Amino acid sequence: MSIYSPAQDWFKAPSGGERAWIGLALLWCVVLTLAMPYWHFKGKQNSTGESYAVEPMKFMERVDRFVQTNKVGEEMGTAVVEPSPGGDAYLQAQMWRWSPILKLRKGQTYRLHISSLDLQHGFSLQPVNMNFQVLPGYDHVLTVTPTEAGEYHIICNEYCGIGHHTMTGKIIVDE
Amino acid sequence: MTTGTIDIGLAPGDASRGAAAPQKPAGNHPAGALRTCDTTGLPVCLVAQQFIKLHAVVAVVFLLVGGIAAILLALTRWPAVHLLPAEWYYRILTLHGLNMLIFWILFFEVAILYFASTSLLNSRLASKGVAWAGFALMLVGALMVDVTILQGKADVLMTSYVPLRGDPLFYLGIILVAVGTLTGVFNFFATLWIAKRDRTYEGSMPLVTFGALAAGIIATVTLLHGAIVAIPTFLWSLDLMHQPDAAWYRLVWWGLGHQSQQVNVTAMVSVWYFLATITTGAKPLNQAVCRGAFVLYILFINLASAHHLLVDPGVNAGWKIWNTSYAMYLAVLASMIHGFTVPASVEVAMRKKGFTKGLFGWLAAAPWKNPGFSAFFLSLAIFGFIGGITGVTLGTEQINIIAHNTLRIPGHFHATVVGGTTLAFMGLTYYVVPLIFQREYRARAVARLQPYIFAAGIVLMSMGMSFAGSYGVPRRHWDIEFTGAQFSHGFDPGAHVMLGLLGLGGTLAFVGLLTFILLTVTAVFFGPSNKGRAMTAW
Ligand code: HEM
Ligand SMILES: [Cu+2]
Ligand SMILES: [Cu+2]
Predict the structure, then answer these.
(1) Atom 33, ligand 1: which residue's CA is nearest?
(2) Would you tell me which residues 65-124 of chain A have a C-beta closer than 8 angstroms to some C-beta of chain B?
(3) Cβ partners under 8 Å of residue A8, min gap 6
(4) For position A71, which CATH number holds?
(5) Domains and CATH numbers, chain B
(6) In this complex, how many residue pairs, one in chain A and one in chain B, have their CB atoms less than 8 Å apart?
(7) Domains in chain A, number
(8) pLDDT of B190 above 50
């Protein structure tokens, strides 16, 4: 009886169906526990959390340098930048824009550095729907290899003030 | 099912009666501070009763505030309606999260703790003064938070991730609520202690009280995290301290945010055991198993808060994998155990009454017209099948990449904390009012329907959210048309259908919620008194 003190000899090992269920549930938990590292090594998409401390101003300088060296055009006042394949690419989040526009090549691997100059933001790549947290003070490095050409949008999915829902950016992947 | 009395499964001379009436141990009540429940025979400490009433009433008031916010949000996320302007959407979202998840739930939980430590142990409440202090701190803090939000001085959402910055009074209010709750929890611990000291019960404490104790322990650890994160943030908002680090803030904040969910789960499971007993006479099959599962919650839940940081910088993959797999699955194990033992105990009780037809004859014959039972069983089903499964899925490293901060997240937690905890608490209320307030519900036919309406609404809304989120639709986002944005993005038309489902389900859930509040308020203030006799059976 769950609302009265139990009889004195309540401490008993489980039996019957209950025992079988606990065994099954435990087994299932073990499977899940092993699946997590397994997917990490076998899966193709992982969130390694690779990151470095960086002052927002320092990060901005690095982005500026990156843009100056690799700029290939401009769209609606935002620089279009083509990083060298295999190299570093930078993406800067600030209230309420993502910059620059990145132009990547299909099948090439990049080290994409993302950080924020002000508040926390949410990097959300659409329509593939991949999402990462962006924090001021942290250079979040994602190793990315685009597998399909096309135009992708970045939206912000961490609340960052009244303009949050207008914060969008763009990544172009060429063949 | 039963007529005249409610069914707590007590046959005369039942060996498991333990401390049941007539009480063998004398209790420790001062003269005149005790009554015996005319329905259950349980002792009721009148001081505790007063505070159970106070906390429950205030809880329902905050549920109403959060509910009004809820319908505004649902009608804003429904693109065809898009009700609120942007500024008010974020403001009301802040209000909803805090009033529902924190104020409604915490006030109700303190009431549960006071009940479980007094009536079930035949003890008096440890201290009236401390109870007043805790209650006052909580209430003042909650009012400060709500006023600050409605003045537009804290549009920072419930998580208030730094460097977003709200008014100092907002943080101070939260600190007061946390300290007030801790005060209540300590009063609960103190009551357990004096009950033990005065030998008001024999042997071990009842299972429901044990569950409440587990909830109290987790709550203490949780609220300490809250203090660690809120105090520096408060000082920073006053310019007395440097800004807390964003990643540190998230780590510690989720030590509060996630664990408080485990307080809710633990309290909810205790309520399941309570309602199973009181509506069908169920007895736990094996007390050691049930208690062991509660202990698993206490030991392993803190680490699971790591799943909120699965796509964060600042913590590495090894840390993410270790904390989310090893520890989380032991807490999952605990839920899977309760998910078995609770319905199994109901099955055994029903079969004993002769409902033995087929595999599920016992379930068909269950008291589905009793809102205490239907709310409890729907809560069990929604929490287990929708909340639990989505939760384990979202907590996986890779899947989190496609789910983080999308509507899949609120889709998950509305199945746990609303379809699960809130619905279970509603079911409990259908007994709290007749037994503690000693008032009967009116419009009983409506009350019998209410849990179904609310459950259906929440399930539909949760599905709408989850599927919209699978298309990438973000949570906490006012405009998925991106009007005025530099680059416009359009979601799959399917996402719009799902957001429509969110709107419809949300509206239905709101109707269920409002019905619950109207019925309960009417019963508390105008319901026929049942003093001196057993409550009318549901
Ligand atoms: C009638 C019932 C309810 C409805 C219709 C409802 C609806 C909603 C909606 C539409 C959102 C906004 C999602 C977004 O745009 O990101 C939301 C957020 C939320 N709801 Fe509810 N809700 C209800 C009840 C509850 C209850 C009872 C709780 C807690 C016990 C709760 C906890 C939350 C939380 C924590 C959030 C997230 C706030 C944030 O993102 O900061 N809701 N709800
Ligand atoms: Cu942003
Ligand atoms: Cu944002």
Answers:
(1) B97
(2) 76, 78, 97, 118-120, 122, 124
(3) B203
(4) 2.60.40.420
(5) 31-205 (1.20.120)
(6) 271
(7) 2
(8) yes
